[in-house]
Design brief:
single chain, 511 residues, alpha/beta, Rossmann fold, 2 domains, 10-stranded mixed sheet, 6-stranded mixed sheet, elongated
Length: 511
């Protein structure tokens, strides 16, 4: 390993990306203009001290400035930047954040306090991939269980853990918190604060150009909170920058859940109700080179450029997120092997029904063995996930979870076969074209789009989620659009379909 690689690995493990001096000054001047005059300043991850020096310069009221960092070399560099350490009110400590007794530290400081800084922008899984040790005690931070904990929801940003710990200790003191972080982290911290009734008020998010300041393409902000008194309302205005006076939106809490635009949500909150149609995600196989094929010169070709002679029994047309988002759904460009009709079905049936397909799968078994997701553990060979009778419904209404647009598409059968979607797409199942067109028209209406946009955080990696889609009540939406009678026709027939075994086998939607 080269010295450069070692340094890069260390930077990632410790989130060691220093805040530019000019940005530190701008933030401190902004906080002072907001009326902050702290008696004590704490920088929990001070690095080489850009925030510390800015605080010393701008917050003349501070009697104590406490700077901590796990890297003693950074603290040595900071010392060299201060002409006479003995003549200032700065205290330096080489300490691991995760081992600090924060209750004792904060209790020893004169109030009002200011906790300021830029905690590391790295997740626990990224550190784990580097075999790093700069981690809190392993835990499922938000208490996820079942499939959520297996498929990644238990992954979290280290800064999220740090900020929550600081908030837990800081909220009973007269003070303020001002932290640079990803906007996704800021929202999770706010959710924790509001759900746990912590004493934070006057919260706000100020957007920061992370690409310009840190060279990373991620939505970031300065999260600012006052502490010591309970909030008057659970809302957080979002501003375009430090100097901007007009808010772009306001994140808020409604019934213990965070919404992206509380004003817009309040307008359409009556649409937040019952999941009348069951939302599903597309098929997951984690083996695209083998399972997904295209037509090339009239022959099927896999992702490795191999031509494949397969029976049609287990081949289905496939649409992906890009197809759905761009409405390129007239003709499929890809086909996918669907090895099961249910996640519990034994795949040995393929050997009996389609021997060439079975031979193809066996010859590429090494690719399946490399799949890391635990959802395949203990399953039959060549298993897939996100499959069931619903996937074989003749008509679907679908949306991409990855693209920053609300567009629902109607998908019908191709050459007599139902189309399949990948696991970045979501859909509801329909029995007829008329039913699918009605559902799509409702979902593409202005009320539906405004309601959904009030819930969606567009800077997320996958902004549209199945949890968001499940919140829209199609019957309430149909009433708003004057189409409740049309929808009732299909909802009434759904009740019968749920009881019918034959309907379940052919993949009818579920209420």
């Amino acid at each position: 390993m080269t010295e450069r690689t070692k340094l890069m690995k260390q930077s990632i493990q410790f989130g060691d990306f220093q805040t530019p001096t000019h940005l530190c000054r701008d933030i401190c001047n902004f906080l002072k203009s907001e009326g902050m005059q702290p008696q004590s300043v704490v920088e929990p991850n001070c690095g080489v001290g850009n925030f510390v020096l800015a605080c010393m310069e701008i917050f003349q009221s501070a009697k104590r400035i406490l700077a901590l960092d796990i890297n003693s070399e950074h603290l040595q560099k900071l010392k060299k930047r201060i002409p006479d350490l003995s003549q200032c009110n700065l205290e330096l400590n080489s300490m691991d954040f995760f081992n600090v007794d924060w209750a004792s530290v904060l209790a020893s400081l004169p109030q009002p306090l200011l906790v300021i800084g830029n905690p590391p922008w790295v997740t626990n899984s990224q550190i784990g991939a580097l075999n790093g040790t700069n981690l809190p005690i392993k835990s499922n931070l938000h208490g996820h269980n079942g499939i959520d904990s297996l498929t990644g929801k238990s992954n979290f940003d280290i800064s999220e853990w740090m900020l929550i710990q600081l908030c837990e200790h800081l909220h009973s003191y007269d003070g303020s918190l001002a932290m640079l972080c990803k906007t996704s982290v800021a929202r999770k911290v706010l959710k924790h604060i509001w759900r746990n009734q912590l004493h934070f008020r006057d919260v706000s998010m100020r957007r920061i150009d992370a690409e310009n300041h840190f060279g990373v393409s991620v939505e970031a902000c300065l999260l600012v909170c006052r502490t010591g008194l309970p909030p008057t309302m659970k809302q957080c205005p979002v501003y375009q920058g430090l100097s901007t006076k007009e808010k772009t939106s306001a994140v808020g809490m409604f019934n213990s859940e965070l919404v992206a635009d509380i004003e817009k949500y309040t307008k359409w909150s009556f649409l937040d109700g019952v999941e009348r149609y069951k939302w599903r995600s597309g098929v997951k196989h984690d083996c695209a080179k083998v399972m997904e094929l295209i037509l090339h010169s009239g022959k099927l070709m896999n992702g490795m450029g191999e031509f494949c002679d397969l029976e049609s029994d287990f081949l289905y047309p496939l649409f992906k997120s890009s197809d759905i988002a761009q409405n390129h759904v007239a003709e499929p460009k890809r086909w996918v092997l669907i090895t099961q009709r249910d996640v519990r079905e034994d795949t040995v049936l393929i050997k009996q029904q389609a021997p060439k397909t079975w031979e193809y799968l066996v010859s590429h078994n090494n690719y399946f063995k490399r799949r890391k997701s635990s959802v395949y553990r203990g399953r039959p060979p060549f298993s897939i996930f996100g499959i069931g009778g619903y996937a074989f419904s003749p008509w679907k209404v679908s949306i991409s979870g990855l693209y920053k647009k609300i567009r629902f598409c109607v998908l019908g059968p191709h050459d007599g076969k139902p189309v399949m979607l990948d696991d970045t797409c979501y859909f509801v199942s329909c029995d007829t074209q008329d039913e699918a067109v009605l559902i799509a028209d409702l979902l593409n209406s202005k009320p539906a789009k405004e309601f959904l946009s009030s819930l969606i955080f567009w800077d997320s990696k996958r902004p549209i989620t199945i949890d968001i889609l499940r919140r829209i009540d199609l019957l309430s939406l149909a009433r708003e659009s004057g189409k409740s009678g049309d929808l009732h026709h299909y909802l009434d027939s759904t009740l019968f379909d749920q009881i019918s075994t034959s309907s379940l086998l052919c993949g009818s939607r579920q209420k």
